[in-house]
Amino acid sequence: MANEIMNASSQFWEDSDYAREEYVSEPFNDETLTQVEKELGYKLPESYINLLKTQNGGIPINTCAPSNEPTSWASDHAAIAGIFGIGREKSYSLCGSLGSQFMIDEWEYPKIGVYICDCPSAGHDMIALDYRECGKDGEPKVVHVDQDDDYKVTFLAENFSEFIKSLKHEDEFE
Fold first, then answer.
1. Largest CA distance in the chain
2. Bridge partner residues of 66 (DSSP)
């Protein structure tokens, strides 16, 4: 997966002023990664870390994750606005002012893991790494959490690598 991500990174990320201003953080080092994982209380998946080594957060070109059940966004997928970087300097980074802990503390999202992507709904749904089955050091599933539907959790992928591979362009859905 790491090689696939590295080879495809130039085709993965959208290049825009908005993405650079809101999501893209400076590259992280091992110390920052360790601090962020400690603050979050979870070990981040290697596939997430490897993707963010290509660019530390941003907006992917393909922003729709297929789903077998309806979400608040569509009958067959969830949409993401961006992927949070590893750090705290950007609002949309894991430990930023609008990051994972903010969504738990202020929006009362369930404490199931780490919220890694926001959605176009401006906080009313999120994408999370769900550690409930695997524990804080395991390989989490990726889920959609819908605040407007009593925090309904919808399965999206077995792991982050599969989630990234599943992303499609919005034009591929009706």
1. 44
2. 77
Q: Give the model confidence (pLDDT) of 15-65 as tens digits.
A: 999 999 999 999 999 999 999 999 999 999 999 999 999 999 999 999 999
Query: Nearest Cα to 60, choosing from 112, 110, 127, 109?
Result: 127
Counted residue by residue, the chain has a size of 174
Tokens of 79: 């949409």
Quickly state the pLDDT bin for 157 (edges 50, 70, 90).
very high
Beta bridge partners of 143: 128, 155
Q: Rounded mean pLDDT of 100-109? A: 97
Q: Distances from the Cα of 74 to the Cαs of 18, 110, 141, 144, 173, in angstroms?
A: 25, 22, 21, 12, 9
127 neighbors 117 (Cβ within 8 angstroms): yes
| Alpha-helical regions (H) of the chain | 2-12, 17-22, 30-40, 46-54, 100-105, 160-166
